[in-house]
Amino acid sequence: MNTNRPILVHKSEFTCLATRELREVLDLDPEFAFAWTPEDVRDLGFERNATADLLAEMFSTAADEADSARLYTFSGFVRPMTDAEWFTRMARIADGARRYRKVIDDNEEGYVDEEAARAARAEKIAKMVTAAQTKIDAIRAKQAAAEVVEVGEAPTVRQPVAAAQWEEFSEEDFDLDTDELVDEGDEHLSAQVEGVERDLYLPSIRPGFMHLPNMIVGSGIVKIGTKNKARQRWNEQQPKVIGRVSGYKAGEVVISYSGEELHPGDIETWSKLLIAAVHHPLGTDVHIAKRELLTSLQGRGTGGTAYDKLREEVTRLQAAMLHIRAADADFIAQMAELFPDDPSVKKAKKTGFVEIRVQLLGASTTNGSTWTIEVPRKIRTLFGKKLSSWFDEGMYYSLKSDTARRLYLLYGSHVNCWPLKLAELREYIGSSMAQDSKFRDLLDFAHDELKAKGAIKGWRFEQSHRRLDTLCYVIDRKVKPRRKVDSKTVHRAVAAV
Hints:
The protein is built from 16 helices and 17 strands. The protein has helices spanning 19-28, 38-47, 49-65, 83-98, 114-146, 163-173, 214-217, 264-277, 290-296, 306-319, 329-338, 343-351, 393-398, 402-412, 422-428, 436-452, and strands spanning 3-4, 72-73, 177-181, 187-190, 209-213, 233-234, 240-242, 253-260, 285-289, 321-326, 354-359, 364-366, 370-374, 388-392, 456-464, 470-477, 483-484. The strands form six sheets. Strands 6, 7, 8, 10 and 11 form a five-stranded antiparallel β-sheet that branches. Strands 4-3-17 form a three-stranded antiparallel β-sheet. Strand 3 and strand 4 (187-190) form a beta hairpin. Helix 1 (19-28) packs parallel to helix 3, helix 8 (264-277) packs across helix 10 (306-319) and helix 14 (402-412) crosses helix 16. The radius of gyration is 27 Å and the shape is globular.
């Protein structure tokens, strides 16, 4: 028998409560939460991360003890559920809010099946491609007929189809490469028509910004260390294994890294090479003059050993190999969209994980002044919605210490900064400094620099109630309003028809 759950107290009455007071109310009677819809829980969680933490924990605990026999109807849900099932579903929604992700339950009112929506979108794009190809074939047939010349008449000059015609189809009608910048943590998607092999490009360039994967800037792959100290090396038999990446649950993304230890300077060079590759299909050669690359890196100069260091960085990036095992739904969805016909990716939807091996840079040739370098095709998997972020170059290069630059990349890959313990920061920015007091001095100086340059509003090292009163670095960030990147800033080179 279905019974309506009574609404006891509205969500708005809880919004002004401190987290501790909210805990006391729910400890007293968790049924107060029955007043809330899934959207209410998301609103509470996104407004205050500590509240999301609390709700996720308390809902999970309540589910173990709640009634699992009698069915009720709940506001915001379609099908009747038991109390235990309701608490379980709400715990997942609260946990998503804790990680700044909007989790939508399949029993919610207005739920949309993402798989069905993606299939419908792919079908629509395929129809557009077919229609555009029919139009192009008609243009070609018309041009071929115009080329037929009768004897004795002056030859007819063939008029080529303007590349702009094809660009109009691909950018407006197909919408295949639309990028959107949200705060500092950007979201990008590049759609692929199912069953149709096509070139892959990096997302459109945004002038004055670096564009880097969250899995790299949020992990210990890029380290800070003494510049004159020999860099550590790992091989594929004994790689550096990273089981925790900032922004992901422990074990959700595991990276096995082989190659030489990377520093911020290596990633700066890589970001410039990615910008140079944005007009080219990935997997093809990119040509760039060494001097042009070096002068684009602010503060490097062209004298002394600058060219030698640049050559070492490129070589180091070519040897850098990432073996990624990801159970993250966004990463799997990105892979499925980019490579819809890959059987291993299709199986990933069922198994819940996917593995990929990718180099940061491919093979190269040089004549001493110009490099020809390949940017691997599979590197596109690291750039996409919730997978990569934009960073203001002006702000980045205004920071002088590697530690401040490394923290800027770490914090900038998140919309908001979760309080981080000393050990977590040591892990995420790849510091080998073992002594806590010295590492704290280094971090204090770097955070002061971030504040002085306006990269953050402020910082504190204090007991955080969001982390059960553990000592953490608590950061107040400046979050920019939502801005949209014009998808037409990059014009793809198209062969003449």
